[in-house]
């Protein structure tokens, strides 16, 4: 069996911090909570969301990043399409949603699909419609409520801070696992 694992084997891209390679775990409009199995590199069904809510954007992670929750950095990729799980996509960073899950920091980068002309012109989170921001906030505050878990959205921040968080998570990965980027 191969040692391929998307977290460790896929590059985060050559244009960081502006554009990253994202690995999609969950397509937009899904109630399935898929996540990368760290041991095998396969995608596993963690659970079906308890609440009648759907992911408002394609959701995944940035390879070769590491965060305080012992996982790769999460990313939401906006696009007009629902992307297939384990799809690799070039994502232009436009902001970050600062949040706490069960009291633990769990930032979510917000990006647009660089190869989707319906959103590729967006350069900063301030350009998104306020309603969409409310929808994102509502989803993440509600999606674990019926599990009696608390998620708190601290704030949405601009692309500049998002890129700093990205670079910090790349450096933390290198400290934890060594420099795998070629």
From TrEMBL:
UniProt binding sites for substrate: 33, 47, 59, 143
**Compartment(s):** Cytoplasm
Fetch the Pfam families from UniProt.
Pyrophosphatase
Q: Which InterPro entries does the record match to this protein?
A: Pyrophosphatase (IPR008162), Pyrophosphatase_sf (IPR036649)
Example of a GO biological process term: phosphate-containing compound metabolic process
Give EC number(s), comma-separated: 3.6.1.1
Query: Reaction(s) catalyzed by this protein?
Result: diphosphate + H2O = 2 phosphate + H(+)
What are the binding positions for Mg(2+) 1 in this chain?
A: 69, 74, 106
List, alphabetically, the PANTHER family matched. INORGANIC PYROPHOSPHATASE
HAMAP family of this UniProt entry? Inorganic_PPase
What the record says about family reads: Belongs to the PPase family.
Q: How does it assemble?
A: Homohexamer.
Function, as annotated, reads: Catalyzes the hydrolysis of inorganic pyrophosphate (PPi) forming two phosphate ions.
Q: What is this protein called?
A: Inorganic pyrophosphatase
Organism, scientific name: Flavipsychrobacter stenotrophus
Please state the gene responsible for encoding this protein: ppa
